[in-house]
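During the reporting period the student researcher (J.K.) took over the structure-prediction task from the postdoctoral fellow and processed the backlog of single-chain submissions. One of the processed entries is reproduced below for the supervisory committee.
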Amino acid sequence: MSGLPARTPPPGLPQLDPAWSRLVEVDGVGADAGQRRTWHCLDTGPVLAERGVQPVGTVLAVHGNPTWSYLWRRLVAGSLERAAQGGPAWRVVAVDQLEMGWSERTGTRRGLAQRVADLGALTAGLGLTGPVVTLGHDWGGVVSLGWAVDHRADLAGVALLNTAVHQPAGTPVPGVLRLASARPVLHAGTVTTTAFLDTTLALARPALAADVAAAYRAPYRSADRRDGIGGFVADIPAEPSHASTPELDRVAAGVAALDVPALLQWGPRDPVFSDRYLDDLVDRLPHARVHRYEGAGHLVAEDAPYAPAVLDWLGEEVLPAPEPESGPESGTASTTASTTASEPASGTAPGSAGPGFEPLWARLDARADDDGPAVIGMTSDRPLVVSWRLLARRVREIAAGLHAVGVRRGDRVALLVQPGPTLTALVYACLRLGAVVVVADAGLGVRGLSRAERGAQPDYVVGETRGLAAARALGWPGVRIAAGPLPAAARAALGVRHRLVNVADLGRSGALPPEPGPQDEAAVLFTSGSTGPAKGVVYTHAQLSAVRDALAAHFDVTPETGLVTGFAPFALLGPALGTRSATPRMDVSAPRTLTARAVAEAAAASDARIAFLSPAAILNVVATADALTDADRAALAGVRTFLSTGAPVSADLLASTAALMPHATAHTPYGMTECLLVTDVTLDGIRAAADAPDAGVCVGEPVPGVQVRVSALDSGGAATGEPGTAAGVLGEVVVSAPHLKQRYDRLWLTDRAAERATGHGRWHRTGDVGHLDAEGRLWIEGRLAHVLTTPDGPLAPVGPEQHVERVAAVRRAAVVGVGPAGVQQPVAVVELHAAPRRAGLADADLADAVRAAAPVPLAAVLVVPAMPTDIRHNSKIDRTRLAAWAERVLAGGPVGRP
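J.K. obtained the following structure tokens:
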């Protein structure tokens, strides 16, 4: 079809200013040579010119199928707003591709090469010169990248939303595209009807507002205006023989040669462009800033705040503004992701190798001729003891074998293996090889674990049967390697390519590649998921070695110490510390399955002097102490240091656990996945702090090499104060240490938000609020997200909760805010020792007792049968959920359960 001229959008489309629209007539190229073609585009150039503003560069934005330049309206508006506020003025030119949107319908079938040439003709007609940043989505991403490859002299950067430049061999095109491009349904689904358009718009999460959906449909009201939609689908190079395959290959190869700043923003719930396409782009653009928006899908421009991120990136990394003359002491939030950092005051930059760097496997290698026990697995009635000699040999064999089957430095290897000797050997083999270990706790649950694995995009998956079955059923990426025995039929059903035993056999005669360096990535460790979706935390070899060194120095670990490792983050550090370790019998996905006897058996087998236990496990350890035999108690009496970290532990529970180890000093270190050891406090220290007037939980003083500061909260509950060490200041806790993480994995925006520049290097914002006391001890008073913004200022919840919990009837309490920000009223929600049958308002006597105990006026007192907690830490109350429930109840809504 042909003869439909270009036009501008009708007035009244939501969030679209008619002043942005223009029609541009340019000389055609390729199939259009000798003809003039008319494009519609949104262009802020004329608006900026009217304001007398000279742009610093141009963003060339290209939509995909079946959208149009309306997709970029938020970027257009945001760029003009920032320019009006005195920020860098970027001209935005958002095109409607020919046959699409409000551009001309020429009737020409446009292949990929033609579309790339068309875009070049348009920019030539507009007279666009550098610096130009391309921005594309869907198949507009490929077209924009084609322009980038062809206009390298003018190119300043590339930015992409969900798209693809390569279809892996042997991998089918996404099902929705196969269906749409099938010859029997292609024309009917894309042109004759609005099925393809409707399906695409329905992918928005949440659903598009009716007027916004109508705006997307506006250029495609009739079949003759939808012919380009069908042409775009027909041009998908699903087969190597497709006419557009050579151009796609050319663009893909050219992208890998681009060295300009790059930004990739992604919706992982996209049924078309899944994370495997993001992984391919990351391989081609390894320097790119990447952010995955959990919950977002194909229409990520509608689902997520992509536009502010683009504008921030433009100002920070493409054409950064000059440094302010006031210097780095201004206290503003850092604007860059974690790369090279200045040295903190401690003298060692996070992630730097420092003098005398020693890789994690060095102490294992040093004991390669030692027949003493190294790793002890307590997974059966008889302990499985692996010597240093055998472990060192096995690590070398697996590393060489993995290299022989294709694993290379930087490849990601997900390990779905229970803690024990096999997992230990695998971890050290991957580290020695230079592969990046991906570790996600099974306690995340199927949904959380699947989200983590898909996000990390491992190249290889080594697993036992249950893990491999999950990987197969849930479609996790990666070449499959079976860690244990598996019949041939099961291997075929689970897609297993190799068996670990065969891999190790290959490694017996294979050579090891050169060792990775201290700044090479070593591991992606996932957070617990207790404060939102689990995040991948990237560590380099230098940073993991710094974790080892901090633990060894602070807890005086020697070759003869011996460890019981009932806490997953530390279960693999024994060989790195150069001491034997034993993992007690338990279900690692359910820490509360750990028993006192299991701890004692592991202590006896390893002659342990240190025991690491998780907070979720120690309650059951204490509860099962009656089953201990005299021999068990004797083994526990040999423990000299007991640690429980990962969540707050009460002094009473810590004392009950320590009573089982009468000669041990009980510690409860404070840390997080991003910095595994920050402060430490002993049971005696907790007791000594009990008489202090401070609110919150005392977590002790910073361990050597770690710095802790507090950024004061403003009246709105935001941490805006210059981080400092003044006593008694309520604020967000920020930390710096040699063993601080490198960055969050594919979460550039999260990384930026968590970074804090203080003029003394790179610091991590923990999200915890608290204060330092006059003795330099840190007190935690809650999470930043849970701070109440009252008329009297910010209020952290833990202090008032501690007072409420002194009421005899109260087992646990949470103080939450109801009402608008700035005038929130505190409400106490309590769980009683004698749990009520129903949730709701407390009776008068209980309410009076709670109000009398609370240090702040309470608007209401509510009771619940049981506190809602997060899935990982039973001790962490879900205050956000409670606040929403309290708001509903006090507004007269249904009580139900929180």
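The committee noted the following: Residues 388-404 form the longest helix (17 residues).
J.K. will present the remaining backlog at the next meeting.
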